[in-house]
Amino acid sequence: MTAFPGHPSFGQLLGNAQLSGPPRWIYVTRRFTTLLATLNITSDQLEDGNRKLRGVIASLNRAYWDSDSETDNGIPIGSWGKRTRVRPPRDIDVLFPLPAAVYHCFEQRSGNRQSQLLQEVKEHLEDTYPATRMRGDGQVVLIPFNTYAVEVVPAFALTDGSYFVCDANGGGQYKSVYPHAELAALDAADTAMNGNVRKLTRIMKQWQRYCDVPIKSFHIEALVKETLRRFDYGRKDEFWFDWLVRDVLAHLISRSNGTFVMPSSTEMVALGNAWLSKAETAYQRALKACEYERANYNVLAGEEWQKIFGTAVPRMVT
Q1: CA–CA separation, 199 vs 197, rounded Å?
Q2: Class assignment of domain 43-177?
Q3: Which of 31, 114, 157, 317 could crosslink 166 through cysteines, CB 3.0-4.6 Å?
């Protein structure tokens, strides 16, 4: 049987069963395909989110672009735009470019212009949703709908394909973001890794949620991309996902207090280490789960995975 890191295929295991004992890892594929299916949002949740998104975009188009369009100008970002959302969705982020004239108008003001702009966007949205208590601070206007929130990021398009977005903190400033470049980088990495970047990102976001891990989702995405490139099995199917979860956690631990660069940007992002102890705990559990999976200890493996992902991952598969 092939030794680490050459994790054998299930077909090889079956073919060699007479020579090297019974097949191993027989539950991994079904366990992780079930987990991924459980993390998919439902069609009702998708329609609910898209309906809220269309309503918000139409409201802002009426206010700023003299249009009733439910799609023009709105750019879904974050997990909704990147298709890395998990069930149940927590929020929907949308970047909304405003006319350049609005920027120049606010530049004539004094004080925290970014905070003032967020308040104006909030007031326009309140015309459409008068019963919804919103707030505008930091970089977004938060609309807390009854199922999940929409976070609006007012922006101004720049000639290089990036956008200025508000940051009302520290007296107010604008910062550049590159949503199209981020999505293109994710798409390229996901294609190169046979769809595994999005799959593993969604799986690790379930760990983030279930274990209340203080790490940002786009940090997880960046570290998943880094991990998968390191292994020749990074683009293989769910049969390898026990190892890949383990390896993502190991790589995360190794990157404590590290940095990475945002796509098409010189912005250095600090990873910090507030999440480190929870990553170390999850890694030790993943090590146990991998050993149990290898030995086909179905329930024992499932119990260890549930300590990381909750009941979204099955305790026992058949």
Answers
A1: 6
A2: alpha beta
A3: 114
Q: Per-residue pLDDT tens for 7-41?
A: 443 333 333 333 466 789 999 999 999 999 999 99
With tokens 């802002």, the residue in question is 60
1: how many CB neighbours lie within 10 A of its CB? 11
For 236, the 3-state DSSP assignment is: coil
Domain boundaries, the chain: 10-39+182-312, 43-177
Contact partners, residue 86, CB within 8 Å, separation at least 6: 39, 41, 79, 202, 205, 206, 209
What pTM value is reported for the model?
0.90
Q: Position 315: which residue type?
A: R
Number of helices (H), then strands (E), belonging to the chain: the values are 13, 9
Q: What is the pLDDT of residue 3?
A: 34
> From residue 171, how far is each of 28, 110, 114, 141, 166 by CA, in Å?
52, 11, 9, 17, 11
227: helix, coil or strand?
helix
How does DSSP classify residue 310?
Answer: G
Strand 135-137, strand 140-143: pairing? antiparallel
Strand partners, 94: 76, 152
